[in-house]
């Protein structure tokens, strides 16, 4: 039996909550049971959930305080659309002059350059001006008319890329006047990885850190796997459940995360760098990977690649587990992940792809539609 405790009422009440959790554990009088202490706070415009297993309440409180402090710092520092560090960076990059970059953004620039290359340009956090043009620079976009095609084409032709940024020690220099960085696609994954590193340093072996639908779990949940629900593309209901043990991340990119409807057409925030328009053909992508930041970047790239090309991009990233739901509701996934899932939506049309972890030299087999077993 597990004993979760939600702690959402501020630091003072949170500490009282840890004490209550400790008393609850003592009252059970059962040493063989593994209590789970949970905490919750808000960052990155989302709910952050922290679950710690087999941890003393005092250590759990310390871990939560450190992670919450770090998350609030990253949220205020790396958010493109708030006054602060990123605002200054995005003012200086288009000038073409070198400047000393805030240390917090350097890892994100380096990683984004790598992910852009791996994805063939489908992952591109340099599209901040296009994001703002569409009105996706706020958590809840307004239902305004979409931008005019001529304006979109102007930004696409300018072709801002992460490759247009040069790093030299602590100095950074932009080589494209259209550059504007927006790390929203990976900032949550980056924060989750930092939190897991912090948790490991504290000697905690079993934990889960989740921001929205992006998470990373280590160890197990009281001797049982972490059971991770993969939601339907609409966000309502569960498509499947994934069991995670050891150290894995699960990241989902979905059209409904940030969207609006105008004149009966749905427009979402995941832009195709090649067209400047919302990517079409995909409703959601879920990636399972060792680290959260790679999983979040890959999920965005695969969303843009769409049902016809996601497999090649997944191989470029070295992924082993992917689910893509196309615009018709068909569920594309590789056999390795299919073997790990408990399918909940028995009406889903499953289309198995060639393996992503095939032995070297083994010829891939074409993916075929496969009905879900009842």
Describe the structure.
By secondary structure, this protein is an alpha+beta fold. It folds into three domains: 1-76 and 185-218, no CATH class; 85-182, T-fold (Orthogonal Bundle), CATH 1.10.3980.10; 225-374, T-fold (Roll), CATH 3.10.520. 34% of the residues lie in helices and 25% in strands. It contains nine helices and 18 strands. It has helices at residues 11-28, 57-78, 85-92, 106-118, 128-134, 149-158, 184-201, 292-317, 335-338; strands at residues 36-43, 46-53, 99-100, 165-168, 171-174, 207-211, 214-219, 226-231, 238-244, 246-254, 259-262, 265-268, 282-289, 321-326, 331-333, 341-343, 349-352, 369-371. A ten-stranded mixed sheet has the order 1-2-6-7-10-13-14-15-17-18. Strands 3-5-4 form a three-stranded antiparallel sheet, with helices on one face. Strand 1 and strand 2 (46-53) form a beta hairpin. Helix 1 (11-28) runs antiparallel to helix 2 and helix 2 packs antiparallel against helix 7. It is globular. The protein starts with 10 loop residues before the first helix and ends with a strand. Residues 1-32 and 362-374 have low confidence and may be disordered.
Secondary structure elements and pairings:
Layout: H1 11-28, E1 36-43, E2 46-53, H2 57-78, H3 85-92, E3 99-100, H4 106-118, H5 128-134, H6 149-158, E4 165-168, E5 171-174, H7 184-201, E6 207-211, E7 214-219, E8 226-231, E9 238-244, E10 246-254, E11 259-262, E12 265-268, E13 282-289, H8 292-317, E14 321-326, E15 331-333, H9 335-338, E16 341-343, E17 349-352, E18 369-371
Parallel strand pairs: 15-17
Antiparallel strand pairs: 1-2, 2-6, 3-5, 4-5, 6-7, 7-10, 8-9, 9-16, 10-13, 11-12, 13-14, 14-15, 17-18
Helix pairs in contact: 1-2, 2-7, 7-8
């Amino acid at each position: 039996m597990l004993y979760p405790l939600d702690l959402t009422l501020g630091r003072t009440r949170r500490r009282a909550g840890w004490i209550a959790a400790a008393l609850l554990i003592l009252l059970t009088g059962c040493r063989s049971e593994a209590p789970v202490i949970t905490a919750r706070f808000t960052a990155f415009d989302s709910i952050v959930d922290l679950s710690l297993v087999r941890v003393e309440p005092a250590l759990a409180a310390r871990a939560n305080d450190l992670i919450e402090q770090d998350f609030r710092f990253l949220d205020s520092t790396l958010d493109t659309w708030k006054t602060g560090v990123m605002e200054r960076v995005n003012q200086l990059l288009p000038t073409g002059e070198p400047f000393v970059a805030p240390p917090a953004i350097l890892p994100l620039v380096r990683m984004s350059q790598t992910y852009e290359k791996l994805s063939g340009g489908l992952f591109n956090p340099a599209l901040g001006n296009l994001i703002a043009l569409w009105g996706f620079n706020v958590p809840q976009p307004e239902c305004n008319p979409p931008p005019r095609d001529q304006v979109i084409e102007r930004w696409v032709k300018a072709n801002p890329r992460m490759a247009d940024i040069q790093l030299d020690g602590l100095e950074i220099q932009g080589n494209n006047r259209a550059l504007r960085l927006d790390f929203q696609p990976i900032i949550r994954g980056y924060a989750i990885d930092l939190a897991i590193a912090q948790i490991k340093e504290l000697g905690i072996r079993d934990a889960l850190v989740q921001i929205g639908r992006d998470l990373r779990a280590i160890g197990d949940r009281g001797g049982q796997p972490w059971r991770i629900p993969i939601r339907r593309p609409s966000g309502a209901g569960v498509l499947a459940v994934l069991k995670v043990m050891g150290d894995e991340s699960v990241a989902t990119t979905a059209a409904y995360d940030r969207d609006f409807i105008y004149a009966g057409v749905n427009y979402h925030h995941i832009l195709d760098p090649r067209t400047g328009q919302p990517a079409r053909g995909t409703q959601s992508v879920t990636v399972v990977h060792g680290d959260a930041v790679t999983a979040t970047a890959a999920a965005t790239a695969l969303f843009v690649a769409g049902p016809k090309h996601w497999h090649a991009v997944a191989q470029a990233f070295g992924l082993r587990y992917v689910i893509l739901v196309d615009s018709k509701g068909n569920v594309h996934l590789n056999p390795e992940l299919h073997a790990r899932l408990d399918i909940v939506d028995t009406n889903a049309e499953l289309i198995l792809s060639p393996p992503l972890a095939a032995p070297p030299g083994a010829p891939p087999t074409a993916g075929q539609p496969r009905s879900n077993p009842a």
